[in-house]
Write a structure and sequence with these properties.
By secondary structure, this protein is an alpha+beta fold. The protein has three domains: about 160 residues, Nucleotidyltransferase, domain 5 (2-Layer Sandwich); about 90 residues, 2-Layer Sandwich (Nucleotidyltransferase, domain 5), CATH 3.30.420.40; about 70 residues, ATPase, substrate binding domain, subdomain 4 (Actin, Chain A, domain 4), CATH 3.90.640. Helix content is about 35%, strand content about 30%. It is built from eleven helices and 19 strands. Strands 3-2-1-9-10-19 form a six-stranded mixed β-sheet, sandwiched between helices. It has a five-stranded mixed β-sheet with strand order 13-12-11-17-18, with helices on both faces. It has a three-stranded antiparallel β-sheet with strand order 5-4-6. Helix 4 packs across helix 10. The structure holds adenosine-5'-triphosphate and magnesium ion (MG).
Length: about 350
């Protein structure tokens, strides 16, 4: 394994790792469960996700990333080193790493990502901005002087950018994505049925019948929780129309951000985007009707990328081949990588 290069997508919901020559070899929730009395880690990834909302008072489930950036440095570092150990079958594993970062993060936030990964023992770290990686992962040739609009709707943030010549012409980032959809469902059900449900239950309902455009084909979905007044167990059968009511507001906020960015996009690039349409990536691009909603409001074709959830990791993986250029020739205009440490 010595000398192997990898790419990491450090997402709010999940960490994905791409191994050069192999593809995506790890996709695990970005969650750590900690014993609050001893500060010891009890579980990580899928095992920790199974504990969400089901812990005793001795265990705290922690999300080390919030809205695409590290919010708990020690836990993020722990998570990264655990996953790197998991994928390496040799003791000597000093990879060069391409890591994706949201396009509008501060230098301090960038530094936290670099430091957390360095601590795991790597040779070199190169950064790639998420929309650039998303476009590469969706199979778009971004090196030409042609505008491409990518919108990555993840768990914590929606990152969007118009790309040309391997760089970002204009970009926006909003903290509205999958987690906000889950919260909107929780709020709606509490208000309408006086029923308190957990985040996992809300996410399951969203994946089963969630929609941001009228959906007729599905039956109701049962959610279970606790009555806010009596404290007793309660359930409700939720319909697609109710989901639409709960989710339309955050979805429209994403659309508004796209419209606002397009208003500021250079006319030539706008022409390209108008012909090719918008590319949607990220796990939340799979929510029913998001493509139709955006297409109707922005009046352009919208396409959801294949395997939208792993596009950023795939694209960061494809950018591994640019690490040598970065080392030999400096940054270069057509290098999709944005910085090296
Ligand atoms: N079928 C589906 N319908 C609706 N939402 C979905 C579906 N599948 C996954 N999601 C949502 O996608 C989100 C995770 O997407 P993704 O893996 O792209 O996020 P991330 O990269 O971890 O986050 P970010 O890029 O914001 O830091 C979660 O909120 C999840 O609930
Ligand atoms: Mg992401």
């Amino acid at each position: 394994m010595l000398g192997t290069d990898i790419a990491i997508d450090l997402g709010t919901s999940a960490v994905k790792i791409y191994l050069d020559g192999k593809g995506i070899i790890l996709n695990e929730p970005a969650i750590v469960a900690v014993n609050v009395e001893t500060d010891e880690v009890v579980a990580t990834g899928k095992e920790a996700y199974a504990m969400v909302g089901r812990t005793s008072d001795k265990i705290d489930v922690c999300h080390p990333l919030c809205n695409g950036v590290i919010s708990n440095f020690d836990m993020a570092q722990y998570l990264i080193s655990t996953y790197l150990k998991k994928i390496s079958n040799s003791k000597v594993f000093m990879p060069r790493v391409v890591v994706s970062v949201p396009c509008q993060i501060t230098e301090v936030e960038k530094r936290a990502v670099v430091d957390a990964i360095s601590a795991a023992g790597v040779r070199k770290i190169c950064l790639i901005e998420e929309p650039v990686a998303a476009a590469l992962g969706a199979g778009v040739d971004i090196s030409t002087p042609h505008g491409t609009l990518v919108v990555d709707i993840g768990g914590g943030t929606t990152d969007m950018a118009v790309l040309s010549l391997s760089g970002i012409a204009i970009s926006r980032s909003v903290k509205i994505a999958g987690n906000v959809f889950d919260e909107a469902i929780i709020k709606y059900i509490r208000k309408k049925y006086n029923l308190i449900i957990g985040q996992r239950m809300a996410e399951e309902a969203k994946k089963a019948i969630g929609c941001v455009y009228p959906r007729k084909d599905l039956s109701n979905h049962r959610v279970k929780g606790r009555n806010a007044m009596t404290g007793l167990p309660q359930w409700a059968d939720i319909s697609c129309d109710e989901m639409l009511e709960a989710l339309i507001e955050p979805a429209v906020q994403i659309v508004r951000m796209i419209q606002e960015m397009l208003e500021k996009t250079a006319p030539e690039l706008m022409g390209d985007v108008y012909t090719d349409g918008i590319i949607l990536t990220g796990g939340s691009a799979q929510i029913y009707g998001i493509d139709t909603l955006i297409s109707k409001k922005v009046k352009m074709p919208v396409n959801i990328a294949t395997d939208s959830e792993i596009c950023v990791a795939l694209g960061a993986g494809k950018a591994i081949k640019f690490i040598d250029d970065m080392e030999n020739k400096g940054y270069g205009v057509l290098n999709p990588l944005s910085a090296a440490y």
